[in-house]
Amino acid sequence: MVLIHPCLHGNFSVSTESGIFLTEARIRLLEAIDRLGSISSAARMFGMSYKWAWDELNGMNSQALSPLVVRNVGGRRGGGTTLTSHGHRVVAFYRALEREYQNAVKELSEHVLATEGEVNFRYLLRRHAIARGLSGTESTETCTTRGRDHV
Questions:
Q1: CA 68 → CA 26, 105, 147, distances in Å?
Q2: pLDDT band for position 119 (50/70/90)?
């Protein structure tokens, strides 16, 4: 057995019919805002502008069922920004999906690179889902509420 790629990782994102909703960069921005309490501080941490961070937040908020952050105006130090409970759930949702996705990439790449001949990907993915205690059913329904895509 020849190991071509010792550690493969996939790029993961979550989209709605309206476009890309969640990416690693957007989730890291939300986590930084949660930690730092400020959009501008979070943007500086990434070496990006406040406008970039605000545009990313607007992109996510326009696709979310409810706001992901709340801005607190005023006060001696100028207020701040905090994640809403929905924002915390969206971050947890993304991290859980990402974990499962990375595990599947790892298991599939190990199997595919170690196997000669045809590979049954459906079987491998179903086996992965069963091993993790997930449902083996697929849903093709669109997730909408009040005419908006949401997570």
A1: 11, 29, 19
A2: low
Please, are residues 15 and 72 in contact by the beta-carbon 8 Å criterion?
no
Identify the CA nearest to 61 among candidates 149, 1, 120: 149
CA atoms of 149 and 65, how far apart (whole Å):
7
What is the per-residue pLDDT for 79? Answer: 78
Alpha helices in 70-120 (DSSP H): 85-114
Element holding 14 (H helix, E strand): strand 13-16
User: What CATH number does the domain located at 13-98 have?
Assistant: 1.10.10.10
Q: Helices 121-131 and 85-114 meet at what angle, rounded to 10?
A: 130
- Nearest CA to 109 out of 29, 34, 37, 3 is that of 3
CA dihedral of residues 27, 30, 32, 38 (deg, nearest 10):
160
Q: Where are the domains of the chain?
A: 13-98
pLDDT digits (tens, 9 = 90+) for 50-96: 999 999 999 999 999 999 999 888 766 677 999 999 999 999 999 99
